[in-house]
Design a protein that fits this description.
Layout: H1 2-10, E1 19-21, E2 31-43, E3 48-58, H2 65-78, E4 85-86, E5 93-99, E6 105-109, E7 115-126
Parallel strand pairs: 1-2
Antiparallel strand pairs: 2-3, 3-7, 4-5, 5-7, 6-7
Length: 133
C-alpha cells in the first residue's frame, strides 16, 4: 500500500510531525496525514500503476508559515523522487513520484482554526501482476 509506505518513509525524516495513514487525528495540532486518492488507469504494457496520493499537513491556529514549511519540506522530499525501488523494506516498487501541483496549497482552516495545506502526488508503481506478457 503506497500510502503506508509513504507514512513509514516520511516518519524517518527529522523535523516532521507525526505522520498518519488515511486519518488526520484531532490531536496533536501539528500533524501529517497521507491519503489514497483515485489514480489513473494502469499502463498494462509496462506493468505500471499510476496511484494518486494526497498529503495533508495541519499546523497550529497561529501563523501558518510553520505548517507551510513542513508541507514544503514534504513536497521537496517527494517531488521528482525516482528511487526505482521500494521506499521501505517490503514496500511497493516505486518508479517515480511527481507532484501534481506547483507546491503546497492552503485549503483553509479546520473547525479549530488550524491551518491546513494539501499536496497531491502521482506515484508510478511497478506491479508485475498488471503487466501483459
Amino acid at each position: 500500500m503506497i500510502t503506508a509506505d509513504l507514512v513509514e518513509y516520511l516518519g524517518t525524516v527529522d523535523g516532521l510531525p507525526a505522520v498518519f495513514c488515511e486519518v488526520l487525528p484531532e490531536t496533536p495540532d501539528s500533524v501529517v496525514g497521507v491519503y489514497t486518492r483515485a489514480g489513473s488507469p494502469p499502463n498494462t504494457a509496462a506493468g505500471l500503476e499510476r496511484k494518486a496520493v494526497q498529503v495533508l499537513v495541519r499546523g497550529t491556529a497561529q501563523d501558518g508559515r510553520a505548517s507551510y514549511t513542513i508541507a514544503e519540506t514534504i513536497y521537496n522530499l517527494l517531488h521528482r523522487l525516482v528511487p526505482d525501488a521500494a521506499l521501505v523494506t517490503g514496500g511497493e516498487h516505486v518508479q517515480q513520484i511527481m507532484a501534481n501541483n506547483s507546491g503546497p496549497y492552503h485549503i483553509g482552516r479546520d473547525a479549530k482554526g488550524r491551518h491546513e495545506w494539501s499536496i497531491n502526488f502521482t506515484c508510478w508503481v511497478w506491479n508485475p501482476a498488471r503487466e501483459i506478457s
